Amino acid sequence: MGTPEFAVPSLRAVCKSGCRVLAVVTQPDRPSGRGKSLKPSPVKVAAQELDCPLLQPESIRTEAFREAIQALEPDFLVVVAFGQILPPALLRVPRFGAVNVHPSLLPKYRGPAPIQWAILNGERETGVTVIRMDAGMDTGDRVLCSPVAIRPGETTVTLHDRLAREGARVLVSALEGLRSGALKGVPQDHSQATYAPLLKKQDGRIDWTRTARELDCFVRGMNPWPGAFTFLGGRRLVIHRARRCPAPPGRLPGSVLPGPAHALVVAAGEQALELLEVQPASGKRLEAAAFLRGNPVSPGVVLG
Q: Rounded to two decimals, what is the model's pTM?
């Protein structure tokens, strides 16, 4: 049971491991793009390539769906970024229970956006956890955990892909261990739980009073969505890449600092942030030097 690209490596790994996939459950095709044509989920595309039976219910909270799954007599339900909460009646169907692959070291960063928040908060390490599912959100007993270092300069995109691959590897080991009885779930320490809420578009607005270190994490964590942005001359400017750099103290946060003509350096609450790749409203992504050739910015101009 999965929907986005994050779940595809897990599906492929389970199929490759020799497990018999009785069905793949994913969200219905959704309208996408300017033409609003129906687009299949990445998991559907992969399931069709793997020749797996496919189910796309609008809701999994119906008696008809539960009966359909029960008729398959599954050993496991494997859930990876599915997008719907499983009701207790469905969790009780499989012989060995339902397991979930979550991209954090639970109980830290429960919720829908753990990868983004790990980067936003400047964590040096995150990971993947396979849990036995219960009625709560990411609260079930831990079966296996695998730490993953967050590399310097890492964005949500690159960390997402590494965690998806690691989650697939750990999932196969967890299924084997649970089936053989070698692995048992260990309760989470709920007092240590933190939550990673879904990000909204407005969350990407940059607060220049924060330190350059915080803003570096912010730009990387908001990449690719919702995107870190600020305003220059009243127009939105998305920041795709940036890096910390020194700056004299006492400069107004958000103000453009003097420097080479090809560089765009902005004062932060502490130090400064050099904007390396930006995208103006209704424009394309540009290296800072290319952007400045068509949009000169004088020192002292304030972004905000």
A: 0.95
